[in-house]
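input
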Amino acid sequence: LVYWEINPLTAYYDIPPKVNTISTVRGLDWGLDDNTACAWVNMLADGRALVYQEHVANNLDAMEQARRIVTATGTTHIQLSIMDKSCWNRDAGLDSVAKRFQRAGVTNLRPGTGDFDGSVSDMKALLAEGKVLVNRKCVNLIRAIESWQYGTHEPDILAATRYAVDGLVRSGKLLAPMR
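output
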């Protein structure tokens, strides 16, 4: 297991801590036949991040997935949306998944770094130290955290969460422990 260091008693929460949210980000992992996933993460004033909502669906085109994500976001202001950098690749029609998501209303969209090993390492450390907490209602994410084996396909909701957390680390809002 990749995330074997995680203590379920401290990594998951039912009721969020009463701490001010300073920003909200989304991590997005696109898939047509595979799942599309979105993780919403609040950055707290005390230096922790809360994964509070998830979306997982498949067999929908990019515009419909994006519309569902925008609807699920509601009125929450999103400071940053991080999506797999491959989503900026253009197809035969010179369009990209990222551009389709933007046209459907996904705001502040940026590509992820592509540093898979580094972002997995950061996420492991942050989860193990209680710097990233997961809402128990995010059952797909919890299942992925508890079962993903390195070398197999990373579950889409786990990738989406990793993109969001990596975006917070790279923006300087969430401090990853020294490796």
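quick obs: The first helix runs from residue 8 to 11.
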